[in-house]
Amino acid sequence: MRHRGLNGEFSGTKILQSSTSNTWLRAAPTYRSRAGKPSPCIEARAGGRKGPKGRKGAPRLMMRSDGYEHLGSALNTDRAKPFPGPPPEQGPPLRVLPIGGLGEIGMNCMLVGVKDRYILVDAGLMFPDFTDLGVQKILPDTTFLAKWADKIEALVITHGHEDHIGAMPWVVPALDPGTPIFASGFAMELIKRRLQEFNLWDEARFHTFAMREKFELGPFECEAVRVTHSIPDCCGLILRSEYGNIVHTGDWKIDEDPIDGDVFDREAWEQIGKEGVSLMMSDSTNVLSPGRTTSESDVQRAIVNRVLSHQGKGRVICTQFASNMHRMESVKKAADAAGRKIAFIGMSLNTYLDAAMRDGRAPIDPRELVPVSQIDACDPNELLIVTTGSQGEPRSALNLASRDASHSLKLQKSDLLIYSAKVIPGNDSRVMKMMNNIAQRGPEIAMGRGETLHTSGHAYQEELDEVLKLVKPQHFLPVHGEYAFLCAHAQLARESGVQYTEVIRNGQMLGVHHRRNGRQVSSGSMHLIGEAQLSLLYNDGNKGTGTAEEMAIDERNQLSVEGIVIAAIDVMRPKIKVSPKDPEFEPGQHRLRGRVRVTTRGMWVDNGRLLKKLHQSAENSIGRLDPEASTAVIERHVSDVLRRVCKGYNNRRPEVVVVAHEFDPRAGMAVSARGRRSSQAPGAGRAPAGAAGASRGARQAP
């Protein structure tokens, strides 16, 4: 796994300069669409591309409603590379360029086009692993999208999971202001809420479609086809063009008995298979799993039975993915069967329920929920608590409760915890630690495959094979999964009768021909026709967004392992300046002296022995320098000495920061200051938590 349209006009007044860059911002302009509806935003003027009408389409730096600049360098088009592929009239007409989602789980984002006209399918994010310190979100390369926004005629969303819509606050500003955006009803409600937080919602450019509806989408006629998944209102896409048809399944499974009654539309997939499909792209997440997925209805029965088994014994606590409205409906049915009231603990549960309410598909009336403040007053035998934290997120309600650190949820020995979720790979140790903490507090825990308390939203092998045989594509491209998953899915497609398959990586452009001879489809061709140089972008959960280099990811990792040494030096020069080579030179009177303070973070200091050695080595090295040596020379020299001491003492290579001040003993103050560090250190802050041998506070030698 890696760990890795429409036109408008602007009006505005006040000009200000960004504090984070040398970019000049036009403050509080208003974008007005053709419909005449204003949408507030901020547009950065820092050069950049020309828009389709000749307007200077520089990166637009939007502001969150709370005032944070969330984009960082996400729209810095200066580093974007040329658009890949041959000229429009040369090479295959059907073209696909994945921006994310191939060779990884998450960050689904793909350009699909005809010649030089493209649409963007999904705008998802990916969550970091433990090596991405200080990072909360990983985003697709929006600098590339911003650079070539004039080629992108629309954005379409297949469903509302974060790995498909989570990057929209960064992707939407990268597109031209009038680029239309399409989604189903439930996904649109989630998108609306998210973009309103960032002051990016413009009603005029967002369009909701129904299943089986056909609508114009850039160079394609698009038809949305119902699929079943672990979130409501999911669709696959049929993209028709004069050069052939493309199918993009989105995330899917075949649920024969869905909770909401929205069945998988086999008829539509069979129909497009008869019509002819040039290229099919399909979800590869569970390609290594044999058989078929369990129906959500089976999970519902298991949850109901488990809740009923705890009658008269105490509270029931259920943790699930907040977006899974089907699971929420199963919990509601179990609560009704057992005569229990429901309480939510976790903001995201209310967020998704609110979106479902506005879309008319809420499984629970929010007015029936027990307020968190009244949980302790309820009869334990009449209460079912739904909580977030199934992945052991540090600040989630369940994780806090496992450590007795939650103000909302106090675990009791009489509780039953139903774990109705999957442990996402990479979260295993964190989840197990949380479950161990819960077990030590006494509640009964129900989890595991044997309980049938969870089912995947992604198709298993038999379902993948079935849809391949329904669609009968001429060419097949596996998407959405690790590289090994993509290879296995390509092999499955060949075994299912698909003649042409290809496995590519993010940034590689695939071209497809589909030639027709009457009703007979002759052999086509599919091959790589170019490659874009893409970069991952990292967001720290606030306004910090940039590349790995800009966000100092490698440096953070080094600090977490090696620690940091900071030396502050008061440089005291002799009153009478005599060169050390002069016969009259006396070390006590004429040598350069420095008062050194050494501090370490995140390092083993051997009960102060290493600190003492660092302090002595720094002072001695200063005395050997020419009294006329500049502070820059002193800093560089002491930095080299401290690095050698650390390397020789315990074979570590910490970050070393040295700051030297000119100090006048008579005045008792520093008269000038500057600093030097051994490499591009972020400063003298605390090393990240978890560093080997990290000290609680500063380790300092005076």
UniProtKB/TrEMBL annotation:
Q: What top-level branch of life does the organism fall under? A: Eukaryota
What protein does this entry describe? Metallo-hydrolase oxidoreductase
* Domain Metallo-beta-lactamase, first and last residues per copy: 106-303
Xref: Pfam families: Lactamase_B_2, RMMBL, RNase_J_b_CASP
Biased segments, Basic residues type: 47-58
Membrane-spanning residues:
none
Lineage summary: Eukaryota, Viridiplantae, Chlorophyta, core chlorophytes, Chlorodendrophyceae
Q: Specify where the region named Disordered lies, as residue ranges.
A: 35-60, 670-702
Bias category Low complexity: which stretches?
678-702
For this protein, the record's SUPFAM superfamilies field holds: Metallo-hydrolase/oxidoreductase
Instruction: Give the species this sequence originates from.
Output: Tetraselmis sp. GSL018
For this protein, the record's CDD domains field holds:
RNaseJ_MBL-fold (cd07714)
